[in-house]
Design a protein that fits this description.
The chain is mainly α. The chain is built from twelve helices and four strands, in the order αααααααααβββαβαα. It has a four-stranded mixed β-sheet with strand order 3-2-1-4, with helices on both faces.
Length: 353
């Protein structure tokens, strides 16, 4: 069922997405990780092909030489086998594990550690076959997965047929001449070429699958209008959220500072801690000068620099700057208690100009 049909018409908030992320619920495609594992493991197999072949020959030689002299229950038979198998498997297994890790990290844009996805859910113990078949066969996602699997099988069959058709007669000729090792090498090359091409194509198929999963995830995270209201009420008193909102407001103000300061009449400073930009347009009905920008410390320094670049006068007045910074917000008309001080500043600017 679509999100709109359930009344979830609003885009998910950053808070909801971050909360889901902490619980391990993110947009992710298993196809990307699987394709990356296949690709890197195939590359590793090709790189270690001669080594693996020599190890297999060594295992065969060992058992062939021991078959008529050693008892079947000899522990050396088992220890040698597992040791040699470990030498062959461990490099490929490590590469596969690293590839799986990278495939997930790339999609989730960082490492996420959460035990939430593996927590037991007892309500899932009872099988729901109807819901299972509805999701896997009779839904958009199910049809997409079926089409994707069919495409993979088709790709493998076509590539295998083309590669084998090109090399089959050469392989038969090698076998006829009794060149067993050459035949094994030829088969290995054919298999490596097939696996490499298939792995690259699978990786290409996994990219659109990732965007489909991402779209479906955002669709599943949509909210109703009521949920948006409740979340706002819940977060309104959260100090961390307030701090984040304050930072966003400061960033927004920082983006508007150059334009506001450039259009101002004067900037009053502390001189280093505070800076207040004022503008007075009596022809537009302003009762008194109003605050167009303000800031402290680094923001104050930025306001002074913009004022200098735009030839806006800078006046040092510590009590006025501190008072206006404390008592006013951007867009406010200055309080009446500062009328006299500000009028003196404006008259000084007129005389100066």
């Amino acid at each position: 069922m679509a999100a709109e049909d359930e009344g979830r018409t609003e885009e998910p908030s950053e808070y909801k997405l971050e909360k889901a992320r902490k619980e391990g619920r993110v947009a992710k495609s298993q196809e990307v990780s699987s394709a990356l594992v296949i690709l890197l493991c195939v590359v590793m197999l090709i790189f270690l092909g001669k080594y693996i072949f020599s190890q297999c020959i060594q295992i065969y030689t060992f058992y062939f030489n021991k078959c008529h002299t050693v008892m079947i229950r000899d522990p050396q038979l088992f220890s040698f086998f597992f040791l040699e198998l470990f030498k062959i498997v461990i490099p490929i297994a490590l590469v596969g594990a690293i590839a799986a890790f990278l495939g997930n990290v790339i999609q989730t844009r960082g490492v996420i550690f959460s035990l939430k996805p593996i927590e037991p859910k007892f309500n899932n113990i009872v099988p729901r076959f109807g819901e299972f078949f509805r999701k896997t066969l009779f839904s958009g996602r199910g049809l997409f997965n079926i089409a994707k699997s069919f495409l993979k099988v088709t790709v493998i069959v076509i590539i295998a047929f083309v590669l084998i058709s090109d090399d089959i007669y050469v392989l038969i000729e090698i076998i006829k001449n009794g060149q067993i090792f050459n035949a094994v090498g030829k088969i290995a090359m054919m298999a490596a070429k097939l696996l490499l091409i298939v792995a690259i194509l699978f990786l290409g198929i996994s990219i659109p699958d990732y965007f489909v999963q991402r779209r479906e995830f955002r669709e599943s995270m949509k909210m109703t209008k009521q949920e948006v209201k409740e979340e706002y009420k819940e977060l309104e008193g959260d100090p961390e959220v307030k701090n984040r909102l304050r930072q966003m407001q400061q960033q927004l103000l920082a983006q508007n500072i150059p334009k506001a300061v450039a259009a101002s009449d004067v900037v009053i400073t502390n001189p280093t801690h505070f800076a207040i930009a004022l503008s007075y347009d009596r022809f537009n009905g302003d009762e008194a000068p109003k605050v167009t920008a303000k800031g402290e410390d680094q923001t104050a320094f930025y306001i002074r620099r913009v004022a200098t670049e735009n030839n806006v006068p800078i006046v040092e007045n510590k009590p006025v700057a501190r008072g206006l910074y404390t008592e006013t917000q951007i867009g406010d008309i200055i309080p009446e208690t500062y009328y006299k001080a500000i009028s003196l500043i404006y008259s000084h600017l007129q005389n100066y100009s």
